[in-house]
């Protein structure tokens, strides 16, 4: 019997060229149209969080926290290119009222569902369960994506006044606890990855359950699709969604339940209404404690985030192969591989600027503006070059640049060397330019206070780095980093900080790379502070003090490409040694069908938890692909 897949036994895998594009949708409508080559996507679907319970003036009771909206990641969805898919974004549940005429009762309302229709399949996430409110009215939390926390009324060790969570989308809320005032406590709302905590008399209300960390799917923070942190709620900026709301405690002297990470609102004691869940986090709202008459918080609205995948399966149907052969488009044998290539950092100057970070180039898993295209490699041996960090010296005229790292056609340029007091006007020097530029020098007199070296030299797309900061009298500039330019020195003041690097999750480690080195403060500088190293291995600069000769700059961290920190000098003018730049690194990631071997043995291979293969190079060597 003929097979519809052209002779391949089993399921034919999809190949997708979505460029790892990240988009989000915070209101109902169509998702952004997919890339023409996209055939697979991963989506985060979050429903609206439940509202927190309210508090009437009498009787004396407290309310629970709202449950988080249903939160789940849908992996490897088969889609069509150049297509817009409709979504409905669930709103947050209403806040529980005070029981006054015209209000909607004391219990929190449940959040609304979020729905995505993708390639003919409808995916629905349930809104978070509303919290139980103080009587009169419902005191039990409602079931939902995650369940609402119970009020103190009807609560206790054996009670079931908590809401259940929907399987695969969240967790139950915590029960409240009825005890003599002031020991009344409400339960925390359930979160996407943890249950809400039960009320804990006599000290505090139950904390909201923690939300879901989505960075393994969408990359390390920061990402433009993640939600900024809000006040009085669990953090969201690290890439966490769906936190439960905190349960209340009766006495103002006790501890109110904290909202779960992922936007859950904190509970609040007498004197004001409870805190809302963070908008577009799916966070549940906080409950409110007595005495007094106050409202709970409103649940946070939902969100949809989509990543259009780059993926080469290595398996095609016979029909696809024949068609491509006839059209002359059948690909060569090989693999589309993701990569991280970081060059060696520049050394810090003497009485000068910080070293520039080594060039940073990556195909994904880091900040979306810095994601290039995947690299096609044929089976066989491929030379890998790891750029060394420049060695710092105590000779002022020296400008010491890092070395390049190379993977096939991808070259990241060594970081520019930091300028010194004697070379402050040499910002155009080729040795000060590089992947990121070195910081400007710090002359003690009125000599030239030149700019830092140029970053992204030679230019790449996306850019591999940024400029070094300008030096000033007695304060050097910071070296440039992968995501930010180095800070400028302030005349007779603070030296510039190294530019920030980029965090990348290609190997499931969320490690920062390519931070710039900090500038130094020259002798007799009045009260200024040396520049800190940029996140991603940048070494800190130093400041001279006392009557010593020299102060050495701090080196950049090994295998991060961090720039070295600048050295200062003692009052007698003897210079310290500039910090050396950190060495570079190359990491390659391929589909499960590929096999990597590496040489020498200092380098390593591994398997990602999702099944992809990894090869990590910390010294130059050979990658064999098969």
Supply the key terms.
3 domains; 2 helices; 626 residues; 2% helix; mainly beta; 6-stranded antiparallel β-sheet; 25 strands; 5-stranded antiparallel β-sheet
Describe the protein:
The chain is built from two helices and 25 strands. The chain has 626 residues and is mainly β. The protein folds into three domains: 292 residues, no CATH class; 241 residues, no CATH class; 39 residues, no CATH class. Strand 15 and strand 16 form a beta hairpin.
SSE arrangement:
Layout: E1 16-25, E2 29-30, E3 40-46, E4 71-78, E5 86-88, E6 114-118, E7 121-125, E8 212-213, H1 215-218, E9 240-241, E10 303-311, H2 318-327, E11 335-342, E12 360-362, E13 375-377, E14 380-385, E15 405-407, E16 410-412, E17 502-504, E18 511-513, E19 550-551, E20 568-569, E21 585-590, E22 596-599, E23 604-607, E24 613-617, E25 621-625
Antiparallel strand pairs: 1-10, 2-5, 3-4, 3-10, 5-6, 6-7, 8-9, 11-12, 11-13, 11-21, 14-15, 14-25, 15-16, 17-18, 19-20, 21-24, 22-25, 23-24
